[in-house]
Specification:
Blueprint (H helix, E strand, L loop, with lengths): L1 E7 L4 E10 L4 H11 L5 E12 L1 H14 L5 E5 L3 H10 L6 E2 L1
Parallel strand pairs: 2-3, 3-4, 4-5
Antiparallel strand pairs: 1-2
Helix pairs in contact: 1-2
Length: 101
């Protein structure tokens, strides 16, 4: 898995791009990054366009990102989920909870 973060200062936002597999092995790295930056931004964009696979551990971290943004009135937005990610989000009902662009 690869994670990159780009600041979008005009919106007090950051976009985190994830690629590869988001599973038990790789999700702790994303979780640590999310916990580090969530309280410093208003908008957190999680780009999942290049995610090939997401497990239940990966889904937990995505939901955690959403929850981390709530206390400060912030918002987490999933950007361009891959077809596999979208299938998993729909199958679990998370597509009705999260904002997806």
């Amino acid at each position: 898995m690869t994670i990159s973060a780009n600041s979008l200062p005009e919106q007090k936002a950051v976009e985190i791009t994830v690629s590869g597999r988001l599973d038990t092995t790789t999700s702790p790295e994303l979780e640590a990054k999310l916990k580090q930056i969530a309280s410093t931004v208003q908008f957190l964009y999680l780009n999942l366009q290049n995610v090939e696979y997401v497990s239940s551990a990966g889904l937990r971290v995505i939901l955690l990102a959403h929850k981390l943004m709530l206390p400060s009135g912030g918002k987490m937005i999933l950007k361009s989920p891959s077809p596999f990610c979208m299938q998993v989000l729909e199958a679990t009902g998370m597509d009705s909870i999260l904002t997806i662009e």
